[in-house]
Amino acid sequence: QSYCHRLQHDMYFLTSTSRLNEQVVDKIVLQLNRVYPQILTNEEAEKFRNPRASLHTRLSDLLKHLQKKGDRHCQEFYRALQINAEQLFNDLPSRKILKTPDPTEIDTDKEQYMLNDRGPLFFLACFSMAAGLALFWYCCNSETQVIGRARRILGFSPIIIGRHVRNICMLYLEDISRN
């Protein structure tokens, strides 16, 4: 965007309630009067520093005057604003638009972090819990004859689960088959 368009976009923000005080506006006008090349003539600077006019009117007139003069004048205004009111300069709506990335662009680093924020241990814990519940439900279902098949599955369990857990499961299955 050109500086004139940015200034037009920021005009309401700058002229709204007490964003710029009288001293800051005077400093900006003086800086615009004294820089090389001279942006404001002495007569224009006196006009925009006139204490008889309201601050809102003077600031609005200054911004409109700079927009008529061209892009270089608006750029110098932004430079003066940055020097004299840096916090306000950083809060300008046009600066926030420039800082904001394209909303259609995907930030791959952020996306990767969002997908993998739990880590591999969380995945293994959830998978183990689901597999254990499925095995428990499959073995404890009274409608199916799964004792023989469960013994075959649990026979390979030293690979999957510890020996003590396997022994407990085998004893449990033997108790169920007797009843």
UniProtKB/TrEMBL annotation:
An example GO BP is: regulation of apoptotic process
Q: What InterPro entries does its record include?
A: CARD, CARD19, CARD_BinCARD, DEATH-like_dom_sf
| Gene Ontology cellular-component terms listed | endoplasmic reticulum membrane; mitochondrial membrane
Compartment list: Endoplasmic reticulum membrane; Mitochondrion membrane
Tell me the ranges covered by the CARD domain, including all copies. Answer: 38-96
Pfam families noted in UniProt: CARD
**TM regions (residue ranges):** 120-138
Q: What is its main location?
A: endoplasmic reticulum
What SUPFAM superfamilies does the annotation carry?
DEATH domain
Transmembrane helix: is it a keyword of this entry?
yes
Q: Which CDD domains match?
A: CARD_BinCARD_like (cd13785)
Keyword Transmembrane recorded: yes
Q: Which UniProt keywords apply?
A: Disulfide bond, Endoplasmic reticulum, Membrane, Mitochondrion, Transmembrane, Transmembrane helix
Task: Give the bilayer topology.
Answer: Single-pass membrane protein
How this chain assembles, per its entry, is: Associates with BCL10 by CARD-CARD interaction.
**Matching PANTHER family:** CASPASE RECRUITMENT DOMAIN-CONTAINING PROTEIN 19 (PTHR34765)
The name of this protein is Caspase recruitment domain-containing protein 19
